[in-house]
Amino acid sequence: MENYPFDSIYQQVPVLAVVGLTNTLLNENSTEPRLQSQILEPNLNSPLTSIKGQLIQYFTEQNKLNAWDVFRKNIGFFHAIFFERDRLIRPRKINTNPNVHSEISPLNPNSPLYPKGIMTTLWVQKYTTQIPCTMLLFTDMYEYNVNDQSGIQERDYDKLITSEIIERKKNCQERGIKLVVIVMIKYHETELSRIDEKVSFYRKTCNLDAKNTIFVLPYGSNPVELLTSIKKTIYEPSVNYYRELNRRIKKKKSKHVPSNPIFSPGTLPLQDGSLSLSGWNVRYDLKSAFIAEFRQDMDIAIKNYENAYLELRNMFNSDPTNNNGSNKPILEPNSKEWNDGKMIADCINIKICQLYLYKEQPLSAFSQFQTHLQKYKTLPEYINNNSNYRIINRIPKYVRPESSNGTIQYWAWMTIQMKAFSELIELAQHKLGLNLPYPTLNYKNINSNVNSSSLLHSYSNSSLAELENDLYIQKNITDPNMFIQQAGFYYLLTSQCVEERWNCFKILQKESTERELSAEEKNLLNSESQIDYASVIIDILKKAYEQFKNQKNGRMTLYLARNIAKMYEEKNNYEIALKFYDRISKTYRNENWNVLLTDILKLIVKCSKETHSYQILIESLVELLSGDMGLEFSERIEIQDELLGLISGSIPFQMNEDPLNNRNIHIKLNNINSFVSCKVKFNKSETLINTPAKFQLSLNTNNIKSPAKPITFSKLLINFNDPNFNICLYNNEDIKEVTFNEVSDGENFRRIKNKNGLITEWINIKDLKHETVKTNFGSEDFLCKTVNLSLCSNMRKIFEGEINTDTPIDLKVVSVSLIIESAVSNLILTADDLEQEYSVNNSRESTWCEIIQDEPMKLIPNENIKNELRIIKRQPEIKIMTKHDHVAFIDEIFPIELEILNAENENIHAYLSVMCIDCVITENINEINKPLEQMKETLEYINIGVIPGGQSIKKMIYIFNSNDIGNKELKVKVEYFIENKETKTQLLPSPKYYSKSYDEMIDFKIAFEISTNVIFQNQYQPFEQEEPTYSLDLYDEEIESEDEELIEYNTNKIEYYKLEVTMYTNNVCKCDIDVMELILKKPSIPGITLSYSILGNVDFKSIDWEMGTKVNYFFLIKVVSDVSLKNNVIDLGDLLIRWKRNPSYQMFNIPVNFNQSLIPLHNIEVNAEPIKIAAAIPSDVYLGEVFTLTYYITNLTLSIEELSITMNSQNSFSFSGYKQTTFDLLPLSTHILHYNLYPLTVGHLKLPEFNIQCKTQNINPKICSTKLAVSQQPHPQSALSSSSTYDSAPSSPTTYSIYSIDKNQTQSLYVFVKPKVI
Question: What is the CA radius of gyration of the chain?
Fold first, then answer.
């Protein structure tokens, strides 16, 4: 857009004048109004100077931004202009004389617009550089300075400040401009009152508004925050200023444009030679549009610009006021006004497009742009019917000229339009984030009833937005030119327009030699000859390249790079063009775009000839020989002749480089599309020393087109990773004329041709001789032979050799070189990655050519043949054997004996590695007792020493499995070497060691099956005062209180659980059990303790554990818990069993410790008891004697509980006391109930049922402990009977307590009533 005045196309923002930050004064010759008041001399030593520097930098940085940079955040955004210290704003001219006009009015003879000019940028510049909407005045508050020699007093200083403020305020008020004063102070805490007084003095003296007109900027504060706040405050007054300015413009317009409807544009009689009525309409519509921009009213701005645009378009049509019947337009063609009008129309078009994009209405902008091109391409200077002009590019219809040819003027104009639109689209992409192409539609819903305005978020009330509807979308959905593309697309169109202009210039230049040009054509030819078209196109294409690169569109970047290179060719800058073509060729080559690659290679050949780049030229010609290139047969012949001529020197070529450096031209076939591919394969992957192994090298020309004629190589080098095996094949120079007929020469040479024309040639190269050959690296030793090295199209040439050595080695062919030698240079074609064939076509199937005496040639497919051969020695034979029990048990230390037998006569040195899946393994039995995390899962490289010939060595290992049953794989690996003949390698593993592996499955089972069951017991320990311990004996004597009634209580609850253990022995072997015990887990919850005892005396060591028997075993577990605890689950722990195999069932006589097996136990649940009930019963009860039963009811909560008590009758007893009662029990308190009972019979009798209900918590508390001492066996229901299952009770009589309560809330107490002996 640099072709148009900047002020005409720049998007305007409010203008802010800044005074007081700079110390510059107006020039003496300046016509700007000056300040009459005395100006204060600046204090350069003041610390406020640094703040002024920050403010200047801030305003300068803000001026670098525009409306697009603050998109949607433009409230408070201004463009700042710096006024000189003594400069005032130009006052408004008030003149009542109608004949006196502005210096830029078309009516003023001294105006540049006189007489018919419409608009000049001077008017816009007046409001962007001279007349702001607001003025910011920065002034310093007085500060005492000892070094100040001016002697000015504070009173005089303040007088000068107020005088300046008053004068500037008056100057601003004349134009309706707002003045804002910012007082800068050097702030001290002690000066707060003085500052307030000073600011108040300024405000009252100058009649300033304290809220919106005067501000204080202290030293040390952030000036940017204050200015941001001030800008938002003054934004609305600034908009009002521009609104008032627009009102005055409309008032002026009414003087020149009548409002009477009978006058339409162009019909009012005007004086000859003056501006038409349409011109005045355009002028004032433009002014209103600019002012609307200043106040950021974009809708009004667009409307005024569109009105001006349509009116201006009419001025290029015929003049309706012309009564002589001619079609002469209002503007005279080719006049100054005509050219200015075109420029104004172009600027208005850019403005409208810019504002539509700014309002996020891209389709309206695109519609306006296309309308502008369609309307103005019909101007006479843009139409030319010269048949010599032809369009050379495919461009959209809206860009094509009205005529079929176009002119230089048209394409110059179109270039400017396209470039301007490209820059606008680029701006919208980067600043607004516009997603392109636009619009993006869902094709499946194209016929849905969706409002297109909401779909495209682009709406306008003007006639220019008619394309934005569903009909437009449906009509143009398949035309990409009817959608807004990214900016790179329009930059590309711009470059094409420049090419069209260049083409027209070339045609005109050619015509100048054939005919006499007119004066206008001569001037045009001279002006166009000064333009460097290629450089212009390159600059534009680079912009397009960057745009497509940012969008990651690789295809378009390659296309543009090719066009850029083409332009460099036009400039004869072949070196840069060559760099572009080289980069493009790499991409096309990697992606197999051979049709495009062919043209690029031709261009590379052309540029390399111009730059005398011999290496690049030869490489490009070699690649063009490939059958994949799209060339005619004649072209292939020419390229091959040219290549061979350059190599041989028959075609002279001037090199930039030293010819000696180009003696050898090295080309890697894997980097290009080659006309020949190489494949190397061995007939086996591994062989023994002194055993021949065959290999074949296959040269393939994979196309019937290339080479166009047979080509003969001078040498063929086959390079191995070991130079001792390198092969050099010479061409047989005795063969003068090469033919490719079928030949059969026994076991040395074969040539056949199949029905498809494929020639297969087999050559035996087994009989090689050692010779010294000169190479690039000097003289080297090769195995050599002379053969036929000619290749033709559609041919497979196979060289078969043989490898036989007495040294172990890993062989591989690392490269194959085809060499054409001449006196001038040598062409060396090298394939150095032989895992694949170097051709873009799919390689032929991997086949092995089999030749056996005089039998026909056989092609044997084999995909597994590779370019690798391992030559090894014969492996000495050893045997690996194992000895162990046929079954292993879980948790058992299982011994295994490994025996390694040396079947050779020579001694071997061996290393042993053993692994068993999911098991730990060791060679030391004592290591089994270590923690499992410290154990190893493998034994690696155990040195078992020397094994003499014909003898064996045994090694004992131990495995341990604690996981699961089933088969586990035992893997044994022995690595060894022959002693005294081979050097021992310290590092293992090593390829110099022989190895042998042995695998075996070990069957793991369980020694015995264990099942456990936990049963709650209705036997409870009496209420105790002592704390429970982890004692294993539950039968300690109770400490009897002398007082039968319980005075103190704890909150413990005791429960008993019976653990039943059932063990089934295995059917494989006998086992010995040492002990079985519980490993109780300490509860993690405070207030719970566990202990246990064994029910019955069992001596496990004395039991003969037969196979397949069942054994029961019992434990009694005591749980003591606090009744106030919440419900908790307790992990009991594990059952520990110590066992081992019976000695009679062990294979090895090895002392083995007892194995340990842990069986996890069940969990039990402990419930909370908010109400604790304890019962006290006398120890001796006799028939016919009254005894007292006492209940202690304790509230363990922190709330009052309402309890209901019921005592039921019983046939065995009569009782007295509360049969039913209700009471409130206070928190943490105890209520005691006494009942007198009279026994009616003797024996173990059930006491009357005692029921209690807690109404508050709706629960039935249970009795949690009793106190009762007896000296006989308890109730049979809870007795521990003696049986053969080793669960008998202790034989000695013991006094113990009974807590008889059912787990299911049924509370039953028993007492033993004795008969009374008289």
Answer: 55
| Residues across the chain | 1318
Residues paired with 139 in a beta bridge: 183
- How far is the CA of 435 from the CAs of 271, 429, 958, 1030, 1310, in angstroms? 52, 7, 72, 78, 91
Confidence of residue 737 (pLDDT cuts 50, 70, 90): low
The CA distance from 844 to 1270, in Å, is 104
The four Cα atoms 387, 391, 392, 393 give a dihedral, to 10 degrees, of -170
Cα separation, 868 vs 689, whole angstroms: 15
Model confidence pTM above 0.70: no
359-372 b/e (C-beta count within 10 Å ≥ 16 → b): bbbbbbbbbbbbbb
Q: Is 182 helix (H, G, I), strand (E, B) or coil?
A: strand
Q: What distance in Å separates the CA atoms of residue 863 and residue 869, rounded to the nearest whole number?
A: 16
- Distance CA(722)–CA(726), nearest Å, equals 7
Q: How would you classify the pairing of strands 715-720 and 727-731? A: antiparallel
The C-alpha angle with vertex 61 and arms to 55 and 62, in degrees rounded to 5, equals 90
**HSE (side-chain half, CA atoms, 13 Å) at 808:** 10
What stretches of 402-480 show up as alpha helix (H) in DSSP?
Answer: 408-427, 452-456, 470-475
Residue pair 869/812 in contact by the 8 Å Cβ criterion: yes
pLDDT greater than 90 at residue 1172: no
1306 CB-near residues (< 8 Å, 6+ apart): none
> Distance (Å, rounded) from C-alpha 223 to C-alpha 6?
32
β-strand pairing of 686-688 with 869-872? parallel
pLDDT band at residue 1269, thresholds of 50, 70 and 90? Answer: very low
Long-range contacts, stretch 1085-1088, CB < 8 angstroms, 24+ apart: 1085/1125, 1085/1128, 1085/1130, 1087/1121, 1087/1122, 1087/1124, 1087/1125, 1088/1119, 1088/1120, 1088/1121, 1088/1122, 1088/1125, 1088/1128, 1088/1130, 1088/1166
Is residue 1045 very low, low, confident or very high in pLDDT (cuts 50, 70, 90)? very low
Predicted local distance difference test score (pLDDT) of residue 1036: 35
CA-closest candidate to residue 1261, choices 1304, 1305, 1219:
1305
Question: Is the confidence at residue 435, as pLDDT, over 50?
Answer: yes
Query: What's the average model confidence in pLDDT over 1287-1313?
Result: 44
Q: Is-contact 597 588, C-beta < 8 A?
A: yes
pLDDT in tens, 192-214: 777 888 888 999 999 988 678 99
Q: What is the pLDDT of residues 309-320, one digit of tens each?
A: 999 999 988 655
Residue 220: exposed, middle, or buried by beta-carbon count in 10 A (0-12, 13-18, 19+)?
A: exposed
User: Using H for helix, E for strand and C for coil, what is the string for 122-164?
Assistant: HHHHHHHHHCCCEEEEEEECCCCCCCCCCCCCHHHHHHHHHHH
Region class of 382: left (phi > 0), else alpha (psi between -120 and 50), else beta: alpha
Mean pLDDT, range 562-586, rounded to an integer? 95
